[in-house]
Amino acid sequence: MVQFRIGVMEKLLHAIILSLLPIAELRGGIPYAVANGYSIPVAYIVCVISNMLVIPILFLFLETLHHQFYRIKPYRWVFDKWVIRTRKKAEANVAKWGYVGVMLFVAIPLPVTGAYTGTLAAWLLKLDKRRAFPYLALGVVIAGIIVSIATLTGIKAFEIFTKGSGG
Hints:
Elements: H1 2-20, H2 25-35, H3 40-52, H4 54-69, H5 73-107, H6 115-124, H7 129-162
Helix pairs in contact: 1-2, 1-3, 2-3, 2-7, 3-7, 4-6, 5-6, 5-7, 6-7
């Protein structure tokens, strides 16, 4: 019985790790957890909370890393040139969409969208971290709902093909 529980917890830990990884995030964590026997609600809650942890960790990492690297002249030159140009291009959209735009960006569960890129975008656009967090977190919540529905829909569609095949 102890061995069974360790195996079960190991699968949940894998889902948590997938939810923390860039690229995989919720798109990997929720389906993995469900495929390993967890219910949609459990998979959703565990993976969404795990993915939300990325936001403050990444903000902290970006602030620390950036300040360290900014002392290096080539980094500072590239960063200033790229970020200043990007901010100027995005200025109108940031003024128009701002925090809601970042939330919507995170909410769409496609490759290169999610908590990592949303947090990076908020940081690059100099959005206030404390104010950005709830918007980013809400984006993760919405993305989790979408991924959960897609996972459940995929399971139901697969069951259509496997029922009645009787083995």
